[in-house]
Design brief:
single chain, 462 residues, mainly alpha, Hydantoin permease, 18 helices, globular, Putative hydroxymethylpyrimidine transporter CytX, CodB, cytosine transmembrane transporter activity, transmembrane helix
Amino acid sequence: MSSSTLENRPQRPEGPAEAPLTLDEPAPRVLSFWDQSAFWANLGVSLFAFSGAYTVLAPDENGVPQLSIAAGIAAMIIGTLVGGLMLGLAAVPGARTGRPAMVILRGLFGARLSYAPTVLNIAQLIGWGTFELIVIADAAHELFGGGPRWVYVLIAGVLTTALTIWPLGSVRLLRRFVTIAVGIALVWFYIQFVRAGLPDLTAHPGASGGGPFGADWSLFWLAIDAALAVSISWVPLAADYTRHARSERAAFGAASGAYAVTQIIAYTLGLFALVLAGQGGGVYGPFLTVTAGAVFFFVFVLREADQSFANVYSTALSIQNLVPRVDRRVLSVGLGALITVLALVLNMDDYYGFLALIGSVFVPLLGVLAADFFLGRGRTGWNTAPDAPARWSMVVSWLGGFVVYQLINPGQLGAWQRFWEGVQDTIGLTVQPWMSASLLSFLVAGVLALVCGRIAGRRGTD
């Protein structure tokens, strides 16, 4: 088999090493299981888990939660565990091939066809990076009791950009210092919130009906999809970091385990804060009013920069799939400036709709990738060369999964939602409570990938 068809493992250098500047250079295998666990564990603890915790309560069009806190926690745990396993699956190809996430998609779709998911990934990562700076600025504004918002955005943007210049050094920094501080802060807030006394977690302000903790089952599965979408948002960039892993097992274990554990802890804490804040109250308030709350909340605000760092760095690597020889440092500086400007002029009003749209694109993509990589052509090696031939069968499988997602959960984005609801009416589809858009689109896309891949293989067109 030619070298363009089967990737050669990069050699593991001795001592510290940094990420390569272009795609022409090999990726050093220097990240241990604990390095990666610290990285993913920190990504699981986000200010989004506090400010966006309401998304797992199935808010209606007016933003009023429809599920109880207890039901939201249950849905969040299920969605996060499933999402963690999906994240682990996405981590393995990077560890095996030593290639970034979007370059790996050359093997799945072909070089030129990989540009489509690459452009979508660039768009969603810029959006996430922008949202992260907004969240950091809002939290800092509340933490310090005011001040010009643009100053906080600027500081967060500069810190984010600096971290992307030395990405592997930033990961090691997380392991040595930040993870410990974050762990202490989480324990502290749990103790303080329990001491403050939590109200009845089974009470909820909206819908009534059967199901767990008084929750409507259809809303319960919608909440699971919302939680899963947060985990899935990291899938398109997992290989950007696990390509530096020392083993596939370490990459899978760290991505699936460490991330899921800390996201569950953080989201539960965020839901507790939501209860303590009360309807209409600021979700950050409970963190700042407890003993030494400002000190420990500052840890969360400062640590949030690793989220924006991950998004910016992976955006740069995604762009390199289009222009392989551009220095990632130049791209990172430009992207850092871009998201800083966007954070100054945008807001987070459509956060939930953004999550749903991300899930509808990348959940089925992962289904196709996992099926073909572990059960299809990937078992003998993918061609990730710049001239890798098109594999339309995989694109068709991806689109099939995407359609399934939209038919079950069209989201809440105005005309987009109305279009898919119209399709539902046309084909006579009634969405049942047990239908999870994420799980069904993942399975449908995976099955289609296996079937279409075998048909194309027999015809010699794949």
